[in-house]
Structures are given as structure tokens and as C-alpha cells.
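Hello Y.,

Per our agreement to keep a running log of every chain we model this quarter, I'm adding this entry. I've kept the format consistent with earlier entries: sequence first, then predicted structure.
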Amino acid sequence: MIVRARKVTAAALTSFLLAVAPAVGVTAVVPTQLPMAIAQPDASVGDIVSTSAVPDTPMTQAGNPFLTLSIETVAPSTVTTSSDPFVTVRATVTNTGDRRVDDVSVRMQASAAIDTTAGLRTSLTLDQERFDRVGDFVTVAQSLETDESRQFDLSMQLRSTTQPSLGIVTPGVYPLLLNVNGTPEYGGTARLDDARFLLPVVGLPRNPGELDPVAPDAAPLPPNTRNPVAMTVLWPLADIPRLAAGIPGSVDERVRLIDDELAGELASGGRLDTLLKAVEFATKPGLDPGGNLASSLCIGIDPDLLVTVSNMTRGYLVVDNPADPASTARDGTGSAAATEWLSRLETIASSTCVTAMPFAQTDLGAVADIGDASLIDGAIRGPADIVDGILGITSTRGFTWSTTGGVDADTADALRAAGTGTVLVADNSISPPTSAPMAQLLSTNVPATDPASTTRLAAAHYDAATAAALAGVGDTPSTPALTPAEERYDLDTDSRTARLQDALGAVNFHALVGTDRPGRSVTVAPPQYWTAGGDEPSAILSTVSSLLRSGLATPRPLSQLMAEPTSGTPVSSVDAATELDTGTVDLVRSQSARIGTLMQSLVEDPQSALTPRLFTAPLREDMLRALSTAGRASSMADKTGTMAFTRLAATRIGIDTIYGSVTVLAPGGVYTLASEQSPLLLVARNDLPMPVNVLLRVDAPPEMTISDVGVTQLPARGSRTITVPAEVDATRNLSVDFSVTALDGSRLGEVSTVSVRSNAYGQALAIITACAGALLLLLAGRRLWHRFRGQPDPADEGYERP
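Predicted structure for the entry above:
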């Protein structure tokens, strides 16, 4: 990360002396002992405009700046021909150091207009001497004690021939800087902080400094509208996953959420409310009479958000422990807000372009690596069906907005297989770079001579620098994963107002620069999970609307972009390195396979509205939610990572519970067989709300032979007796293990051990029986022999008839 304007140079000596001063005593360091060659004087010292002597700012011993500047308002936020001829900035300076700071003074500086898209970010990291158009220092506080703040207004003319000005003579986007000087106690005068932002200048107002009112430099200067830029705007409505994990689908049970924060985002003034309200307001016929903004705009909707909000409208619960979704829960408070918001969305969606984002903003690269066809379908093909089903519309199909800004070869193949014809990626992910609106996306997995390579997958691209500027807007600024290192810096050093100014400058840039290039076009795409709120969404849409009204831009609907033929050299796209560890991906792969196994064994009941697909859908969606990219590129990364880990753990527990709901009940006591071929009677129990087909698995000793009973269907929330043919060839006590499995052999429930006592004697019993029979025949024959011959049987000696 680059920390702006704080490079290590020779002036670090100033920081060191200021930091150690309290440790060595008051008399150890005095102002006259500081090296004057590296101290930047205040305006009261003299009219010194060069700031190259101090390219960094001193820091306290604790690593804090002595002063911190925060920009609160910029007026005008966008300069037009009807604006005031000067810029006024309201800001606050705060003593964040460990001692008093005296003679606090501020001045405004400007740099040359930005001429490249990369400059939208790199210009905000320039050394302050590059801001060479400077005003006078103005003292805003005689002294500031520790933690004390002072608010001030500072104005400067845009252009002037008689007074210091920002030197802005043509429309463009200009980097501006506020530079604050001060004298810390026990130190010398130095530059202690600065604040930067972009100022878009669409047109120049009248120059009041020109004495001749008819002179060319005195008149307002409008922008060049002869070659407008074709503009497409994606407007995201998404959230981080909120549904509790590990809970299968049902018909009448209320859903459970991990928290109730979504209720606040949907309510009046919440983030999602303001994002939707900005579209409602900006596309009103009175503000958009020609429908230009509505034509250029397409709302991207996360189907996971719609699923959650739709369920909230019917009442919901908030769990006390997200790691245990079946634990205690309380009633949610956002049902009314969800109902109203969803109704408003249905209204605006009926007349506006809508496209479905990948489900839960899942990492498409990770899904492609897992290779589960059902997950791929749920992430790419299924979202459009969800959006259309809930909103009652027909959304734009065959279009996928990459969640990470790029797609690798495996992901490209997965998109083709799922029916995607156009994928939207960041322009800096494409190689070789192209200015064509649509380029053929190649896959390294399919040779160019292969007939399959003719399957159309076109790459449309949005401007990455503009996306990075928009990502900085809102409560939780982020930096897209594909942002180059030279365009990265610590967003926390900027105020929220400054970050909004940077976004407005980026949106205006494409209309103001490169007006001589034919066929100009741009796609504007904020991050899918966007934390812009308050007046920020309206300010951005108002900027787009102004560009369209003024003729600097023309609307290019998403459908028109998708209809563009591919041109230029075929390209490939790189994806951002995934932050998911292999353990997470492997766990998703294994649990998704278990869900597929369960799906195959469940049986649809015509009498029930609950189908196997509806029952298992939330579990499969949990897998996609665990791979969500929402918040991953911001300060929320640790929080979202923990949420994903908790979600996976809860999902595994939920699937284990489902598998354990189908089992063989262990009989009490010992099972006694009446003969060697007596059957075993077992009871299998199904606690699931739908029937399930199972197989019986038997682990018996060699003395017992068990016949396969085939597939057995267990009724929903019921049990069934299974007759198991068995044959035992010995008299002994046996221990037999029984369990039920899914149709692919995966075990369900627990193993039940049955103790079997057999009365069979096997071969020995047969021999004994045969010998006894033979002896009986022999004795009977002997008696008959003697009787036929009229001889008394010797066995009858001593026996007399009565």
C-alpha cells in the first residue's frame, strides 16, 4: 500500500527530533536548533511557493501525524459554465499529535489536468511539489492543543491573470491539494499534512479577473460536445450473505438470519434504500425527460439478496449464535421495510434493464476450480431464474458480471457451458489491451482449431480506474483486487467527501478527455457490494445524467453493448488471485458432493409442495455464499472471512444432521432365530420431511448369509420394517452391524449393532438326526422280523400280557 506524500527522505530528521523532544526535556530542542534547510516556512515568514524542500510530513513518536486534515464539502463539486468562478473547500484540521501546534495555516494547490485513466488514481499519490499552482497560506488557528479541531473555509479562483489561481483554463479533471503547515511545540515550522481530491471541470465560468469583459479569456468556456462518449452504467444492488447456514428448505417455516443489519439497510435512509431511491429519483420523467439515463442504466441484482428479502417479507428470525443456526432466535424487525423495498424494486425493474449477478457474488474462479456442475449452474445460470421469478420480469440473459474483475481459462469454459455469451471484466484484466467494445475471449483449454472454440464468449470491459474510484465511495471503501500497485493507497487517509470527489472526477473524465478519438465508449461499473450511501448514489447518477443532457455522453443500453460484434484481436483475461485457502475450497467440494448424494436419494411426494430441489437448494446456496467475494477487498475482509468460515462449519453440521435423520433403530435385547433360515426384522426411521430411498448395508460374520433386500423407500417422518432374509449354519451368539445408505453407498445415520442368537446346529445336527433315524428304522425292522416269524422279540423277555 502506498501512503501518500509520506516518503522517507532527509526530512525524517525533523520527525525524529520532534518525536524525541519530550523525552530529552524542554530545553533539549528549541526551534533554532532545527535544520532550517528542511523546514517549510509559514506564509507569515515570506511568500515562498516552493514546497519541494519538504516532500514528507513529520510524525510523532507514536507514529501519528501532528495534524490531520479532513475535507467536508467542495463547492462546486463539479465546475460548469454557470458555476461560481472559484472553488470553496470546507475542511477541519485536528491536532492528532502529542503536543500543541502553533501557527496552523493552510493553502490550496492544483496540478495539471489528468490525461490518462491511470492518472485518476496515480495523481492522488504525487509528491506535493507536483501541485505547482499554489495559493497563499491562510492562518486558520493560532494554536491547537492535542485533540482540538478547527473548521475553516478556503476559496481560490479557477483562473486569473491578476491573482493566485488554480490555473484551470480548459475543461478536464484536476487534482487539488490542501496543504497545512504548523509549528509543533519544541519544533520548527513544517508541512504537517495534506488532503487531496479530484475536481471535475465540465465547463469554465466567466473569468472575473479579466478586465476586458469581451476578451476571449473572459467569456465562459463550454465543453466540446462534438464527439460524445457512449456510456453504459451498471448499478449494483447486493449485500453480504445474511441467511443462516445449514438449514434445509421448507414450505412453512420462517427463515433465520445471522443478524438484523439488513433491516436497517432496507429501511428509509439505509444503504439499499438510498441506492434504489437514487435510481427512482434520477429516472423520473421530469428529470430524465428523454429517458437517456434510464436507457444507459442497468440494475445488477444479487439473487441471494432477493431470496433473503423475499423471505423477510413473510416474517423471519434472527439467531443468537450464527455458528449454531438451530439455537435460540428472536423475531426480526425488518419485515415491513423488506416488503416496501421489494415492492419499489418490482416497480422500477418493470421499466428498467435488469441483470442478475452471480449468486451471492460468489468467486466464479473458485467455483470453476471445484468443478461441480450443480454449483456452476447455481452460480451462473440459476440467478436469472431467481430474479425473474421474484420480480416477475424478464431480465437480461446470457450476460455475466465478473465478481473479481477477470476470468481465467477454466472460468471462461464454465461460463460457456452455462450459456453465457458476454462476460463483463475490468479492462486491465484483458491481454492484449483493446479499445473495442467487444472482443472474443479465448480459452487456453480449447485449441483455436477446435470446433468448440467457435462458441461465442465475448468480453466486454469496464474502466478499472473508474471502478477503483467508485469503490472508494461509502462507509467501507475498498480497492478492487486487480488494481495495480502504483494505483493503490491507503483510503483511510481520505475523508468520505474527498473519495466522492474522486469518483465524480472519474465519471466525468471519459466525457472530457479524448474527444478526438472516434467511437468512444465506456462502461461504468461500481463494485458489486457497494457501500455508497446518503447523498453519494444520487450525486453519481446526477453526474451521469448531466453528461447525457449536456451532450457530452450518449446512452448505450446494455442490450446494445451485448449486440456489438466482436472485433480486433482475440483476448484472454486474467483473474485476481483467490484469497480462499485450499482447505475452504476442498470443504466446499466435499460438502457439495454430499448434497448431490442426498438429492439423488430423496423422493418427490406428489402430495407435498416440498420437492427435493427446494429442500436441498439452501444447502447448495450456502456453498456459494461461503465463496462470496462481498467485502473481501475492504477493511471488512477479516469479518467476511470469519463469516465464511462460520457458514461452512454450520453447513457441515446441518448436512450431518440431515444424514443422521435416516437410520436403523437398534432393537433392544438379543434377537433369537427360530431356525437356520429365520428372517431378521429391522426398523428404519426417516425423520426428514420427504420420502427417501435407501439401501441396507450389513456387516455380518462368515457364519451368517444375508440376502440383499434392494432399494427401500422410507416414508416422510415415518418408519418402515425391513424383512432381511438370513441364513445361519451354526448355533452361537452373533454380532451383526446394520446401517442404511444413500443410493451411491454413502452411509446415512448411525450403525446399529444387533446381537443374534441362533438355534441352528448345522451339519452336526443333520448327522445326528440321520443316525437317529437309521437306528429307529433298524429297531423297528428287527421287531417286525421277529413278529413275522412268530418268534418272541428278545426285547420282550420278562414281559407278560395282562
